[in-house]
Every structure is written in C-alpha cells, then in structure tokens.
C-alpha cells in the first residue's frame, strides 16, 4: 500500500528551464510534507517543507505547492542547474512535527547542459 | 541545517557476524532518531523509531531481535544487525529529528554487504 506516490520515475530538463516534480498521497491524515534530494550512496538532504495550512512555500530556486483537495504536491525548481541532478523524494507525515515520515518512490532528475 | 553523522559508511562482513552502525547528531540533541533501509532503486523504508532512554518502536515486519537499537544518549543511536546474512545486505540510513522544527536530518548512510 503505497501511500505516497511519485508516478514519474525520471525527468530530464534543459539547464535554465523549470523542473516540476510531482507527488500524490492517499492518506488524508498527512498534514506535513517535505522534499529531499538524494545522491547515490548518500543520505537524503532536506530541501523544503510545507504545512497543510499553506498552499505554497518558497525558498530560493525551490517552491513547493500543495493542493490538499487533490492530495497533490509539486516541487518546482527554477532555473534548473546541472548540480540539481539527483533523485528527489517527497515525504509526508501525519503530524506537524514530522514524527514519522512516509517516503515516495523517488524521481530521478537529470538536468542537461 | 543540522548535521547527522553515521559510521561506518561501508562494511563488509561474513555471514553470522554482527555489525554495529552508529548515528550521531553533532550539533543538536535528538530525543528521537529513525532507522531506514533502502533497497536498490527503491524508496526509504522506515525500520524503527529510536527513543532516547526507552525501547525502540519497530515497524511491522521488522525483527526486533535481528535489528537491535540502542539510544543511550541524546546524541547517539546505534543499530546492531545481529547474525547477519546475505539478505541483510542493504543501505541503512539514520535520521534525527530536530525538536519543534519538524524536519528529519539524515546521515550519509551505511552500505552493508554480507558475504
């Protein structure tokens, strides 16, 4: 039972363009969402988070959008840079303090020169 | 962000031996740490929640006698894979939660290979 889904296993984007990574969830108890970036053989690095009381959170080149009614969130990276190439995981928690995260399956982003 | 150190980064052991993995929060105290396992090209699967001063909470299907967790201080949690077998070979990652912030910060992971 995959409660957090990232339906696109991979995404290729030209440098300078926008990258949009999508995530869907099924558990209506989730109210805190996070995005992590991961390189092979390394632990995930926290990027950005959003609480369910918001529909948008922005941090530099990264913006996360949340559509609660659709149970959908997305991560926008603009402009995309080659160093952004990695696997991106969305994660969700049923509380505001991320007590227990459920991870999506990941999307591999490749930013091409 | 907060720094979490995980050691060792890679370990190769013989079948039947035990392996200990350490997870330390370097610049903050963590009453709660988490242990995950990642199989190739798959997501991170939570194994257990490590609570300082009390017993760990294991996820369904995770053998507590196989994966021993100790959280003896506010900055250190250890995972011991007992009597390791080749099927235990995997990438193990720990994280620590920053209280009141709601974010988990991850260690670099440990690649365990059991021969």
| Uncertain parts of chain B | none
What distance lies between the first and last C-alpha atoms of chain B, to the nearest angstrom? 37 Å
Structural category of chain B is mainly beta
| Total of DSSP H or I helical runs spanning 4+ residues of chain B | 0
What does the radius of gyration of chain A come to? 13 Å
**Over the alpha carbons, how many angstroms does the gyration radius of chain B reach?**
13 Å
Average residue pLDDT of chain B: 92
Largest sheet of chain A: 6 strands, mixed
| Element string of chain B (H = helix, E = strand) | EEEEEEEEEEE
Total strands of chain B: 11
Morphology call of chain A: globular
The largest pleated sheet of chain B is described as: 7 strands, mixed
Q: What does this 3D model show about the protein?
A:
The complex is a heterodimer of chains A (113) and B (115). Chain A has 113 residues and is an all-beta fold. Chain A is built from no helices and 11 strands. Chain A has strands spanning 4-5, 10-14, 19-25, 32-38, 45-51, 56-59, 62-67, 72-77, 86-93, 102-103, 107-112. In chain A, the strands form 2 sheets. In chain A, strands 2, 4, 5, 9, 10 and 11 form a 6-stranded mixed sheet that branches. In chain A, strands 1-3-8-7-6 form a 5-stranded antiparallel sheet, with no helix packed on it. Chain B is an all-beta fold and 115 residues long. Chain B has no helices and 11 strands. In chain B, strands 2, 4, 5, 6, 9, 10 and 11 form a 7-stranded mixed sheet that branches. In chain B, strands 1-3-8-7 form a 4-stranded antiparallel sheet, with no helix packed on it. In chain B, 36% of the residues are buried. Classes of the chains: A mainly beta (113), B mainly beta (115).
